[in-house]
Amino acid sequence: MTRSPAFEIFRYTVILLALSVTLIPTLWMTSMAFKPIPEWSASGADLTWWPNEPTLDNFRFIFGESSSELIVALDRTAGKPILASLLSAVFGTLIAMISGTSAAYGLSRFGAGQSLPLALTQLRLFPPLAVMIPVMIMWAFLGLTDTWWGLALVYGIVTLPFAFWLMKTFFDDMPYEIEEAALVEGCSRFRVFMRVTLPMMRAPLASSALFVFILNWSDYLIALLLTTREWVTIPVYMASLSSSMTGQLYGAKAALGLIAAVPPVILGIAIQRHLVRGLTFGALKQ
Fold first, then answer.
1. Where on the phi/psi map is residue 143: left (φ > 0), alpha (ψ -120 to 50), or beta?
2. Sign of torsion, CA 161 165 170 171?
3. How buried is 14 (Cβ within 10 angstroms: 0-12 exposed, 13-18 middle, 19+ buried)?
4. Is 77 or 214 the better-scoring residue by pLDDT?
């Protein structure tokens, strides 16, 4: 059925309007990151959409180069929080994906009733704050508080149900006959999994890993409770950016937010050819 030109114009107009609304916060953050202090401070009278005098002072400031007398120098720069976020998010994603993929494959191919999958889901049924109290006590006893590896371990545990359920759905949609053919040829179960199954699951693995990484990268509550100073992450560090003279440092926060958006965007671009296939894996069946 052919669509009329008027319908196509209407459809693209609606898409552009929706896209413009969703992009307003991103555009505002980008413009704020390059504004000098008088254009974003609470007392400033020059509040504009676009910077009149673009500057990199906000980026210099969060990395320890105070370029204005209106704000004092930071007691800690953004370098270590960025490193803490990278380490905890990356290793937390690896823990979740390795454990979740292994569990999903075992349950998809060998089955274990409904009790075990539901037990894994229960990790996400409780509010994070309700389960973080005993975790804080255990982590303090084990000496894992205010460490990136302790934070990565919690991230891996918390996002394990997401990785498990996503990968189990993909494994259920994958034809089992392919693995049976490899088993008949003499391959062991482990070799079939490593040489046959995983290469066919590159797209689902990429899309699931990106989803889990974004969850870990953007976490605030867990990092706030498990880190104090040495290994605070970007969201926790961003919340501390304030000054007695100017109040909230919106320009510095916007600059840090722009930097924080880079890793997920780069990861998404790097695996973009797998994303569409991964998100639609198993959607069409003969």
1. left
2. positive
3. exposed
4. 214
Q: How many helices (H) and strands (E) does the chain have?
A: 17, 2
Type and span of the H or E element at 283: none
Q: Which two tokens stand for residue 27?
A: 């555009």
What type of residue sits at position 242? Answer: S
81: burial class by Cβ within 10 Å (0-12, 13-18, 19+)? buried
Q: pLDDT tens digits for 131-181?
A: 888 888 999 999 889 899 999 999 998 898 888 888 888 888 777 788 888
3-state secondary structure of 4: coil
Instruction: Give the angle subtended at the CA of 229 by the CAs of 227 and 231, to the nearest 5°.
Output: 60
Taking the C-alpha atoms of residue 85 and residue 216, their distance in angstroms, rounded to an integer, is 8
Q: Which residues of 147-171 are buried (b: 16+ CB within 10 A; e: fewer)?
A: bbebbbbbbbbbbbbbbbbbbbebb
What are the helix (H) ranges across 146-271? 148-158, 160-173, 177-184, 189-192, 198-200, 202-217, 221-226, 234-239, 250-260, 262-270
